[in-house]
């Protein structure tokens, strides 16, 4: 059953014409992945509005333009091994799965078990389980068993770049992470060349907090 195709095309064409996203591979992936399938049933009608939306347990899925901007900055290539911290609904991970096929793999970590379980089911239902592996754990520690990663993307705001994530970034790798507190952060691109790491600020963003050993301690102490 094909649903929301026209709405999805309209959204992607809007991102294209406003110049937010220029990478055609990213735009094509956004045309293919059905965002509504990642949302709770009562939110599906809003899936193709360019807006962040609640996905349950106090968490949110980013607005499509932000997802597009992040995917473009990550510069994903077929064959890449990718680590995502904060699977949430799994939408961003599925898009990355499209971009690293063939030969690549996305490991996405979620600390909230109900969300992680639901994301895993969605991957199976939509046929992304061969390219996206959902792991329930504290992602502020990274995922050492599959390191190093060509790309790392963090979907929650950290007080600083967690050391384990720097250590798990491959040579010539790229990491995107929102850094800062108080409901407003800088989206930071970290690149590695050999032993040297470089940070570039890409602008202001608003993300939910990264909770964990190398993140914020808990929701009540947040930011
Ligand atoms: N990328 C997601 C949106 C994620 S919202 C999507 O496409 O839907 C951020 C997510 O990060 C939330 O689900 C939150 O539970 C998770 N999170 C916060 N701290 C975490 C940690 N230390 N490890 C793993 N996930 C974490």
Overall mean pLDDT score?
95
Which value, in Å, is the CA radius of gyration?
A: 16 Å
CATH architecture of the domain at 62-205: 3-Layer(aba) Sandwich
Count the helices. How many?
A: 6
In spatial order, strands of the major sheet run 5-4-3-6-7-8-9
* Strand residue percentage: 25-35%
Helicity level, as a percent range?
25-40%
Order of helices and strands: HHEEHEHEHEEHEEE
Instruction: Compute the separation of the termini in Å.
Output: 43 Å
Low-confidence stretches are none
Number of strands: 9
Under CATH, the homologous superfamily of the domain at 62-205 reads: Vaccinia Virus protein VP39
What is the fold-level CATH name, i.e. the topology of the domain at 62-205? Rossmann fold
Question: Biggest sheet, in brief?
Answer: 7 strands, mixed
Bound molecules: S-adenosyl-L-homocysteine
Q: What coarse outline follows from CA principal-axis ratios?
A: globular
| SS class | alpha/beta
Features:
globular, 28% helix, 223 residues, alpha/beta, Rossmann fold, binds S-adenosyl-L-homocysteine
What is this structure, in a nutshell?
This protein is of the alpha/beta class.
